[in-house]
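Example 4.3 (complexes with small molecules)
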Amino acid sequence: MYSQGLIGAKTETTEDESFLAAFQARIDAEEKIEPNDPMPVGYRRTLIRQIGQHAHSEIVGMLPEGNWITRAPSLKRKAALLAKVQDEGGHGLYLYSAAETLGVSREQMTEELLSGKAKYSSIFNYPTQTWADIGAIGWLVDGAAIMNQIPLCRCSYGPYARAMIRVCKEESFHQRQGYEIMMTLARGTPDQKELAQDALNRWWWPSLMMFGPHDGDSQHGDQSMAWKIKRFTNDELRQQFVDSTVPQAQYLGLTLPDPDLKWNDERGHYDFGAIDWDEFWRVVKGGGTMNKERIAARKKAWDDGEWVREAVLAHGEKRKARREAAKMAAE
Ligand code: FAQ
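Answer. The structure with Phenylacetyl coenzyme A bound is encoded below.
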């Protein structure tokens, strides 16, 4: 666990021009910023927001797949899915720890999630209706997550960048298990292939939305790029994802649900159709099929865990008291 001691740390800085210029010079020189380094309040706030939302996404992201653990079609599939969902829990914990180095507590972040103040990825507000959805999530959702997270391994904030290295290794296994499920279904009976196509139809557009609004509408994009928190813009990463996923779909013999998708020789990229941004914002603002259920599940888990948190604190107090008594006796 990164330093809990930073919680409640003084977060103000004297942000005169020379301080900001010196900070930017460190960023431009590709130096890593570490927890105890002076940093602009905005930099700290942006990281707490992004890392916190990222952590929430991992934890909420366990729910749609968790729904299929008891219904996986074989022992092998069940073991792989169980391991994947556990990995996601682990990613959430690394990320909460990375955010804690910036002076925010896990409790504060959880309260913000449960009150609706902090966001989590829109993608996890869609239901998992069939087993093929588990394949589509691994292939597309983890695929999009990797595309977004590989550059985060070079993020200017040290603890976030280091957490991302391990997370990306695990995401890569997740993506492959999803693609392998899709391959098995696509090469199976006509009914199985139809199941895979139906999952692709439902998950394709929400996966493109994971990269966030168009660059022109991205509120934090420019500043995060200047601070080298983000290394590519939302649209750049979305395009890279489309370009790498089209051949994968072709190999599966499945059709991406976009009549406007076609190779553009001049651009050297695939053109693709318009994203339904009304749907995106509706889901982000709580109006997706599963928003209420996801938050209710997290609230129940948090409430059910209260006695564990109390017990850990009480145990810590007892140990401290015992240590102090032993110290007094020795003096
Ligand atoms: N959903 O100004 P921007 C995973 C919000 S992990 C909901 O462009 P930014 C693993 C954004 O927060 C998936 N909200 O924001 C897994 C902001 O609102 P705010 C999560 C979204 O931060 C796989 C507003 O819109 N990954 O999948 C979304 O510069 C399978 C304006 O947007 C990460 O979190 C969205 N899709 O760029 C687990 C990666 N997009 O905060 C289980 C780290 C945007 O002002 C199963 N995060 N918003 O209230 C990032 O890279 C960035 O935060 C972006 C957004 C790219 C997501």
